């Protein structure tokens, strides 16, 4: 990945810091909020209009998840924080130089002005720098205030997830989406799946050493702007196992029981929140410390056996996304 | 351990099935109840007079813990279930034959008539057969009713302990207390600590393959009827580690941070509930499958290094029990 | 379950202590030994003729597994230890009274005289009392000798399993096999699966509080004497997950990746050792403390969704056993 | 942290990628190698002169640890990889501009030319870009080659650590060492401990989101160039607990049994390798995703209670480092 001047067509590497939050759309706002609080263990930090903002205990920002009432499930937008104000300026300039139209918003609960644009694939992305850091009302009685401040409370409700981890988006042209993420946004491409016909069906991208932060998977219905899943982090594999028990106890449908990914070596559990969006509870991914690793190219055959222990994925895995446009297609 | 006829001075081996519940006394009933529910994760199943009955999710009986308001902390009584009605009759006959005075009570929340007596060392013990099995109001939506019934709900509050595990009693004459437990009650003695002068300072007793169910430790103040601690079971070491975080977050004082016992190979965390009683969160003990294992005799020196990784215990460990009679002694 | 006099048609409850060892037959002895040592982590403690005896680190007896060269895979015999010499006498008398023919053997590596007979279903069972307890050559340098002696060494090769846990046998008439186990051998029946036509297709039996020690499953090919699997214990779910990685690294085929049973709440991993026998790595089962629990009867429908998180089992699970007689049937 | 031009007195942020390896000195090379292979689980990848190079299974480079025979224990040097060749040039130019003398070496087993200099505090640091990536001889039989390549083998010997994690150096002037690391090398300072007199006694520095990669602690003997400890990563807390058992079994002295740090929220075990150097097995630290977080300043009082569960550290913790110069001081 090449280095670029400040005002060029690409941002400098490191200009984007991390994905800070995601907005999920849900036709059942109340039930979705209850699932993300009582089952996943997030905390409501604010409401505005038809939206509810939530936070995981180890997130330094005020909110990592925004739930918005909508006719259909899906992703509203993706919020990416830049590393400083200059980086935000460089990124917006680079987008303009690349002919990507965007517009400033005045910000939202938890963060300042954001530059919004649609990435290839149709997903809305917002870049922002100014943020509101979470400040706990009172420290834990038995812990130094600083520790409480930084580390978050344990033993919260349900799964007690720590923070937003990554987002997996469905796109009709994965190669194009991944190229844009690399060239216009400065993501690194760590892994990709190339089908026998040479087309790319999966791309694992990251802004740092985490092996995946933004994933593009092929939208086999050819639709745009759809979501495959949003993943939340826990610290241990035991917590993922416990999450499966909790999903069962609370009636949250499990799509794939806890098992091991090969790509990224993350450990996972997939289910569906009441709005219909797929959610993942995940942990354990190996960090990519190599500053310039060669992209790993997986064949489709390798990918089919792609989870570490041979776990088979159900057909819904490759077929279902939100919004669920398959009904529309079937009715044509 | 010898076998005995039905009407002899000893019960048949296996006549006592397991310790079913323990009654803790607390000068701060409300705070104690809150700690056992919000922090430990037990559920209140009934109240009667100045007592509150609680249950862990994997207990098959209605209640494994009774909290009773009292001027001082300590243990009210220990409830031991027999394996059937005949076994209860054999045990009471054997106690009478051994000159142990006792009396029948009409039962309590969750169980039927009980035969109450004081064991050497001054602790009140109750034997009972009839019990009320817990029946969940409704099965978990995603689990077969039988599984829900047997296995209990996960993801409850706080530490989410599963059940009462064992009780550690302070006694002025450990050897005598242990002998009584073996001969009059049918316990097996798996481990003991013998001091350099030949006296016994610790005895680990069990009614089955669990390596410890009733422990006697020397009361160095020479008092009778005192409690060292009550232990609650979780299924994994990760949950013990998580429990330590939760104790810190809720202000429950930690006496000994999570570490490994050598005797029994159990993993532990010690703290104090608001009434002043020491509590343990524990897991992992190796089962003793040998039906007639030789008792392991530990020297005091071996015991001093007795935890598996060299963890040092604070002085309170050997000095403090409930009720805390040291103040009285100091004021003499 | 009724109590019986010493010379009756049934043994007294508790006369059998636990399953002490199992003999597996293998057409590839050398590879099987290598798998059980290098991958599972057992240690060879002796060889005799075409057999190799192995031991897990927390087994108190000399050997829990005997591997014997044979034309076909399968189970050679099951060794069950009695609780004392009198119990062995009672059991053999009861078998004779029930018309079960048996014969004494002079013992084997690690144990004394054994009474051998075929249980309904065609499996060879041996009852024994005299055993050789394992004595380590030298204690661990950093641990008291007694602890070393009792607890076993950690960090052994591969999965580092602790001990034999349970055996699952295929039988053409599960109800009859289970009845015999209860009435002639004193097992408790904790769970059973009853098909829609009233036939029993699975029975979970135990000699103590472990929820399963001997399981009978329906042999759908109607054969006798076959094995479904042998299970080995590890102490934590993390070790089961690690075992899956190790299986992959060593080329041990995984049949079912780590997941959660509902019956017994045990956590599992299934694979095949080089001889063709199915093996399980397991942990976590809840103890059954109730001395006389009602048998849980599962419907076939409940059983089909019987693993705790909805994990689907492959067809091989219900079809394959050792010896693999399906080829013979197919060639008819 | 400010951004700098290419030829200025500071490198650009991100110019240093990560600490790639560390060289430990040992007066008992053979025993040290045996400890790092048999107990820690590293693999020897090369020897040269009096040095042995080792590798953890998830390290992408050929070697993360070099052991060199020496009269005294201690640290030989610290190897830091730059993010590309230009970054290496910028860094060396900045060092020269800051008056830091250095010299090029022609490289070593596993990496190319390195620029060596002494940082304030007296420790030798080498910067390098060219590296040799590890290529496995053959993939695991049951895993796609790419996965095997990236993820490493599981079930290796002993603790089976994954990779070098961080280095803790003793320095006579922590504030000065930390300033240099920030300004001349581009480290971020995430946490520091400030004593009541205003002096800095601890500084936690990182080149990325890991909360600590290089730590400076006060050398209370005023010596220079000494080592507090080197830490190796495992993926789960269970593996740290298992490591403690393995240390005991192998006679590796445990200094502090497994417990929880507050700073960084890492989970740890400390012991001593046969050469006398302190080693840590660690996992679990929270990532710092904030690109520009305020440094947390801990008071000495907060630090004294600084481990998460109140675990007390022994006096050796603050007194001992390698080489152990205390004997010299005592003999004055």
List the defining traits of the structure above:
eight-stranded mixed β-sheet, homotetramer, disordered N terminus, nine-stranded mixed β-sheet, 8 helices, 332 residues, alpha/beta
Task: Describe what you observe in this structure.
The structure is a homotetramer. The longest helix of chain A has 14 residues, at about 235-250. Chain A is built from eight helices and 17 strands. Chain A is of the alpha/beta class and about 325 residues long. In chain A, the strands form two sheets. In chain A, strands 14-15-16-13-9-12-11-10-17 form a nine-stranded mixed beta sheet. Chain A has an eight-stranded mixed beta sheet with strand order 2-3-4-1-5-8-7-6. Chain A starts with 15 loop residues before the first strand and ends with a helix. Chain A has helices at about 30-40, 85-95, 145-150, 175-185, 235-250, 300-305, 315-320, 325-330, and strands spanning about 15-25, 45-50, 50-55, 65-70, 75-80, 100-105, 115-120, 125-130, 165-170, 190-195, 200-205, 215-220, 225-235, 255-260, 265-270, 280-285, 295-300. In chain A, strand 15 (about 265-270) and strand 16 (about 280-285) form a beta hairpin.
The radius of gyration of chain A is 19 Å
What composes the largest sheet of chain A?
Answer: 9 strands, mixed
Order of helices and strands of chain A: EHEEEEHEEEHEHEEEEHEEEEHHH
Going across the biggest sheet of chain A, name each strand in turn.
14-15-16-13-9-12-11-10-17
Instruction: Estimate the mean pLDDT confidence of chain A.
Output: 89
Q: What is the topological layout?
A:
Four copies of one chain form a homotetramer.
Chain A: E1 16-26, H1 29-39, E2 43-48, E3 51-55, E4 65-69, E5 74-82, H2 85-97, E6 102-105, E7 114-118, E8 124-128, H3 145-151, E9 163-171, H4 174-183, E10 188-194, E11 200-206, E12 214-218, E13 226-233, H5 237-250, E14 254-260, E15 267-272, E16 278-283, E17 296-299, H6 300-304, H7 316-319, H8 326-330
């Amino acid at each position: 990945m090449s280095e670029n001047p400040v005002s060029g067509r690409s941002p400098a590497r490191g200009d984007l810091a991390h994905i800070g939050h995601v907005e999920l759309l849900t036709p059942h706002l109340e039930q979705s909020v209850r699932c993300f609080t009582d089952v996943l263990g997030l905390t409501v930090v604010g409401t505005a209009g038809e939206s509810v903002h939530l936070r995981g205990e180890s997130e330094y920002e005020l909110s990592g998840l925004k739930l918005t009432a909508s006719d259909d499930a899906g992703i509203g937008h993706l919020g990416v924080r830049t590393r400083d104000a200059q980086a935000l300026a460089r990124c917006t300039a680079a987008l303009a130089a690349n002919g990507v139209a965007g517009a400033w918003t005045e910000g939202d609960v938890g963060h300042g002005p954001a530059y919004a644009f649609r990435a290839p694939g149709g997903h809305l992305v917002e870049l922002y720098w100014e943020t509101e850091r979470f400040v706990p009302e009172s420290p834990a009685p038995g812990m130094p205030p600083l520790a409480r401040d930084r580390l978050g409370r344990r033993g919260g409700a349900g799964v007690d997830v720590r923070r937003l981890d990554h987002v997996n988006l469905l796109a009709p042209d994965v190669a194009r989406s991944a190229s844009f993420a690399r060239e216009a946004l400065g993501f690194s491409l760590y892994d990709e799946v190339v089908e026998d016909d040479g087309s790319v069906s999966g791309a694992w991208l990251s802004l740092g050493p985490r092996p995946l932060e933004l994933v593009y998977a092929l939208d086999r219905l050819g639709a745009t702007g759809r979501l495959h899943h949003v993943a939340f982090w826990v610290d241990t594999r035991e917590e993922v196992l416990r999450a499966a028990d909790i999903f069962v106890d609370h009636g949250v449908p499990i799509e794939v029981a806890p098992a091991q990914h090969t790509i990224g070596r993350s450990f996972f559990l997939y289910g569906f929140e009441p709005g219909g969006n797929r959610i993942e509870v995940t942990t354990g991914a190996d960090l990519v410390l190599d500053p310039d690793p060669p992209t790993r190219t997986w064949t489709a055959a390798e990918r089919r056996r792609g989870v570490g222990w041979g776990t088979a994925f159900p057909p819904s895995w490759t077929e279902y996304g939100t919004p669920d446009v398959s009904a529309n297609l079937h009715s044509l």
